[in-house]
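Two proteins follow. First one:
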Amino acid sequence: MEVRDSQVLAAMSHPLRRRLLDMLKLDGPATASVLAEKTGQAVGNVSHHLKVLSGAGLVVEAPELARDRRERWWRRPSEALSWATSDFVGDPVTEVAETVSLDRQMTLSRGWLSEMETAPAEWRDAWFSSDAWMRLTSAELAELNERMAALFAEFGAKAASDPSVERQSVFVFGRGFRAEP
């Protein structure tokens, strides 16, 4: 889903709403009650944020999953969300969205570092942290982004292709931008 409306970007630029979107992507459809339990939030608070996400078209109801009229299930209409900051030049919501995203990435990274020593050995040995300085053109940086996104999509599809293998949730992120050492 290509986000081109700043109101949609603003709707997803909230830490809890980003987390709800992540959970619905990783675990599939859920009710507000299930999401509230997983996040430690009140059901009413989660319901409010789901309504905001729904108003922005970021989640939709899944009535086919409901057992009765009172039960409301929610799902993401699209697996991937992306936006180009160039679509929001001069709009302060861009910086907010990027800041929320970066804060989430750093929080998850710090969480892993704090639990790494007690994690099973195979997970301690499998994790990675990689960075590199390169000299690239803007077109080469765009190509690197496309190739990384394709690799992320390829590995993300493995769970759907073979659900018999036990998998753990894994967070992977990458950023590339112009900078000086």
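Second one, unrelated to the first:
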Amino acid sequence: MRLGSGSEADVYLYRQHVPNRKVAIKISKQRLDSQAANRLRSEADFMGRICTHPHILSIYGSGITATGHGYTVFEYAPGGNFKAFLEHDRLTADQMLTIGIDLASALFTAHRKGIIHRDIKPSNILINAQHMPMLADFGIAGTIYGGPGVGFTVAWAPPEVLANGGGGNEASDIYSLGATLLAMVTGQSPYEYAYADELGNSRGKERSERLQFIIMAKPLPAFHRPDIPAPVERVLHKAMSPAPEDRYFSALEFARDMQRAQLEMYGHTACTTIEGEADIPADVATNARLATTTTPATVESSRRSLPWTKPPVIALAALAAIVAIASGFLFLIAPHMDTTSDDRAAQVSGSGPGGKTSGRNNGNVPDSGVVAGSVPQVRGLSGAYNAAGTKATFSWTNPDPQDGDVYAWTIVGGTDESASSQTALTSSTSIDIAPSGEAHTCIQVSLIRADRRMSDTPAMACAIRP
């Protein structure tokens, strides 16, 4: 089944035989010359260095077919992408901040490895089976020190990239992420939204040229929308400052300011997922009584397991053990994936601006689409201390209760390594925990069916000591 088509490659949905799973395969339309083969290897190398992050699309393998066509095998994201989502829906500012903190964590992880994305936009933010936002399409990525990739998309590119005809750095990626996040609330890129009258009904190349001129010549205006509070607009404006030196110094700094704005306006904040960095900055943890995540009704952003790695799948073994499931890597399209899926409900189609492939799984599939037979994540996980600070109570709901359901929960984070390694089972949808001396207590919870199938991604929430 074809998922999408661009100027250089097609993307297909296949079912891999071993391990048995759906995958998305990007296959070049033409036989590859040496330069194109180098680009293919570059994309695979870039993705392989960073795709352990829970909000970066995984790559399973890459190679050249017997006929000289290049292919890359990716994690399949059945929820489509945010370009398709924005054609029929919007996020609230609160929901947008949660997604933004997720994506800024992923972007900082890439930047720390020396990788610049160069083309962040809604069509390159995919939605996986657990409704998590996934940064994808590093096909034009390059290293901070120079390398492949000069492309961009006008609506999401900062003025300096448009002036130079391509390229970019950490600051330009931060701009593009800010523009993408604003569109999740408004439905349009910032300058298309603010200067709609000047763009009029122009189409195609004419519209692109007008928009490019506006971005380079016009100021970024205030938006004055009641659904975007002033602290949130301030954060987005800083990320999209016309001058690169006025933007956030790093994607981590951007994430931290989003956490502060979310706490100020909504009384809670999402956690970052960055190796070696605190989930919640000290100033936020000090002022917050509760830190948990916001899950949009339409784009449910799955919460954390261990920071900086793909959330592990926990399984029962004699009702106690945790079994780590290792990712399989695919190096040949045939014979292991010689049949396409017949799951029409998962079909995604379409392409990005200019006919370019805009994501691995582009199209209009609702974000509610999941792989058949998957176990849902628990919902509404939250936690709070009692007034004395002697007990933390966590509760959640089961979106699809069935006979025999139980829940595996684990304390995560903190300095107590033994606590982080112990998993307990409960049939209840709430637990009480006697906390350690940490400033906050975080847990992850997974739903387990009677047949031992388990939700692919645990939910996570933190309670902050009063």
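SUMMARY FIELD: Confidence is low (pLDDT under 50) at residues 145-149, 289-373, 414-421. The radius of gyration is 22 Å.
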